[in-house]
Amino acid sequence: MNKKTFYITTPIYYPSDKLHIGHSYTTVAADAMARFKRLTGYEVYFLTGTDEHGQKMERRAVEAGKEPQVFVDEIVAWIQKLWEILDISYDDFIRTTEMRHKDSVQKIFAKFYEQGDIYKSKYEGWYCTPCEAFWTERQLEETCCPDCRRPVEMVAEESYFFKMSKYADRLMEYIENHPEFIQPVSRKNEMINNFLKPGLEDLCVSRTTFRWGIPVPFDEKHVIYVWLDALSNYITALGYLSEDDHKVHTYWPADVQLIGKEIVRFHTIYWPIFLMALGLELPKKVFGHGWLLLDEGKMSKSKGNVIDPEVLVDRYGSDAIRYFLLREIPFGADGHFSEDALIQRLNFDLANDLGNLLNRTLAMLQKYYGGTAPASGTGEPLDDELKNMAFDLPAKMEQLMDELLFSNALTELWKFIGRANKYIDEAAPWALAKAGRQDRLDAVMYNLLESIRIISVLLQPFMPQTPEKIWAQLGIIDMPELHTWESILEFGKFPSGAATSPGAVLFPRLELVGEDRVPVRQATKKDKPQPEREVKPKEAGNMAETEGLISIDEFARIDLRVASIIEAERIEGADKLLQLKVSLGNEERQVVAGIAKHYAPEGLVGKSVIFVANLKPVKLRGILSEGMLLAASDTEGNLVLTTTETLVAPGSKVK
Ligand code: MSP
To answer: Is the CB of 230 under 6 A from ligand 1?
Structure first.
């Protein structure tokens, strides 16, 4: 039987400037998808590359005082290095300046011409060089490009035109009959209403006023329009119209083409029409994701280090950056990037939830078993919830990934991590050890090891480096059969007798300090894996020295107050956050609270809550937050605000 195949592409990048973290978003997402499909048994072809021709690139090279080829070569090398440090596992990297691409594009152009889809005429109209896009007078917004809002230029030159109108009805019909073709649905509606319904004009597909492009094969003073050149990469990389086109037969049509929302038009109107003209099938899905923004708006190179992916990987590691990008922003929507938000994810999800699960388990294993994994022991009903969740998890994540819901897939994985942490608290291995219930202790520790193994296998597509570190600590690094998808479809494959060894902390908790906001490791004893232990009565006198516990003096440093909520409103673009004003009796504070999913702002005004009054102020989404409301959170992620039993005056101390 033939292996299932999966062809996924990213856009090919302009090597005109170094890329910022927003650019990495498409590629990291495509990589996670490619890795997930490989894990689940598909033969994957993952394509990325660079879009090197066009007027914009020629001008940038002139500005830099370099030949265009020399100019792009340098940046392409940098892009390839960036993908290496972000662990992008592409199968092919196509450059539009390569012979294999240029040959094929010239053949495509000639084919269009021969079959009467292309004719010669004169173009007179507007052109946006940064977007390399033609616009009609009617489409301009206040004489600027409607996509990037920069000034357009008047172009008047002899050109070849592609008869878009010939295919418009077929395309419209196709889009309507294939609801999965353009995703998310909002982008499909935009294409139909803004571009297809008003009527497609024929597209100018050659230029004569600059040279940096692929020459029209039968009329060398023309170069081929850069979008026709660039879009073709998705098939030229497979060897389309070359002597060896077996990959076209194996992989085309693409299963998923990931792109940013600003280039949906090129990919869902021009591209399918070119494919129809070539007699090729259309890609199964084109997904236009949202943008990663900064609090102050769009990313641009002038924003410096905060968005430089190399600097960020250096500071936080590639896995943490990948996790943030995939978890923080629902794919399709716009999202915000900030180092504060990144650190929060790192500290809460990676250090606390994942890191602690591993540390706690291995520390107990050291203490009770000298590190050697026990046999599976005696089960109890308490284990069932954990095991059932583990059993359902792979299929759930697979379904979410098929819908490109990266964040939701990770949320499911983290629910399981949360369940495993709660299982430790409920099963209380320290009490089992004390009571000498060896068989039961074996079961609990075994179930924890197996749960961590399952988590590590499922983490691979998202965070390729972390699983290996976990396997080394679990003592199963040399057992590849335990790293596979098949190995987690059944609970209980963890080898008893494995030699576990607590190693370096996976993700230290970080904080940004000083005016330069340098990330430094938070000083915490929790960083070192410590045996989970019960406090014996005789130790009660020197509790302050007891690992993980705090003294009454330390507790007293937290200034807890009763606060009354006097204003509450939503924050535009942040679906989890509310902006509140609270009264502490003699002063008012502004706070940003992550409770929007649990409380409607209208219902909050007048509520009395417990408030941390001496927390360092931070800016969230650019809004100053001067304190924190306390809320109880269950494993389902539900939040309930804490309050006092009876009404107490705002500002009253809680102790
Ligand atoms: N060269 C064209 C694509 C041709 S495909 C046949 C191009 N290149 S690009 O370098 O400008 O953009 C590459 C990808 O990066 C696009 O998918 C774009 O949407 C994405 N992003 C650029 N900035 C981004 C953010 N700030 N956030 C998320 N993605 C962003 O377009």
So the answer is: yes
